[in-house]
Amino acid sequence: MASSSAAVHGKSKQRSEGFQVGESAARLGTQAFAAAIIVITALVLYSLCTGSWPAFLRFGFGFFSSTAWDPVADKYGALPFIYGTLVTSFLALLIAVPLSVGAAIYLAELAPAGLSSGLTFLVELLAAVPSVIYGLLAIFVLVPAMRDYVEPALQDTVGHVPVIGGLFSGQIFGVGFLTASVVLAIMTFPYIISISREALLDVPVDQREAALALGATRWESTYQIVLPNARLGIVGAVFLGLARALGETMAVTMVIGNDPSVKTSLFASGYTIPAVIANEFPEASGIQASSLIFLALVLFLITIVINGGARLFLHATRQRGA
């Protein structure tokens, strides 16, 4: 009996030691994977900094405020590209957020189950469409529609309104900031809709039922109970859509006009950081290549700042809610 008990105790001890070894190995493995993210980010930042250093030595901080982009004279500035990137991205969000959140509310709260599933599948399918397809569709469908109908209508109705009228002035070509923003809005729809819908569905059903039991209508339950509880997820979806818009290259390149200038009119042609890098980097060399890498570093920093601000905003919102 004693020998049998000792054998059982020995096996139990070996099993416990095996579990401890496995747990330690799993912890070390996951820590290595997490550290790899930091290492990759640091390597990307280091590569961008070293590549952009010649341009920084030549232009300094004036690179950010200069509007020059002259490969012949080797004079470069980032302002037109920063301006174009920010204008198109935020205007795209201005268009996409109300439509996307409204669609997510319908899919999560109001649509029949079968219809909701079918539409959700189509939304997720749109997220998988390559950006060049959106660009081609924009050239053949959106650009003519903007040139012949949308932009003339905007110019006739609000083009003479004080303060905002300048945004809808100038010649109409169909390509420019507004068209690029519409394309970006269409491309961000699937991401914002999908994540917002999941955030709405994560709200416990008990809260909906409690609101309905107290006499609230279906819409009152959605507006007063579901939306406030899902706001963090919806805000996260919006910032994910913004990150998607900031980094988009091909579709924007095909419809923005690729003019390195700063203009207030949304009908005017412009340029974005990803577009100019895609267009010019394959043939660039010397200080031009360094300037393009400098632009990539600027876009990288803009993304970090926006995502960091989003994290701080979500944390502050969560703390107030707590």
Characterization of this structure:
The chain is mostly helical and 322 residues long. The chain has a single domain (78-321), classed as MetI-like fold (Orthogonal Bundle), CATH 1.10.3720. The protein has 10 helices and 2 strands, in the order αββααααααααα. α3 (113-127) packs across α5 and α5 (177-201) packs across α7. The longest helix is centred in the first third of the chain and has 58 residues, at 2-59.
Short description:
By secondary structure, the chain is an all-alpha fold. It has ten helices and two strands; from the N terminus they run H-E-E-H-H-H-H-H-H-H-H-H.
Beta-strand residue fraction: under 5%
Order of helices and strands: HEEHHHHHHHHH
Q: Report the C-alpha radius of gyration, rounded.
A: 26 Å
Report the structural category: mainly alpha
What's the mean pLDDT score? 88
What sort of overall outline do the alpha carbons produce when their principal axes are compared? Answer: globular
CATH homologous superfamily (4th level) name = MetI-like
How many domains comprise the coordinates? 1
Low-confidence stretches: none
Looking at CATH, which topology would you report?
MetI-like fold
**The CATH top-level class label:** Mainly Alpha
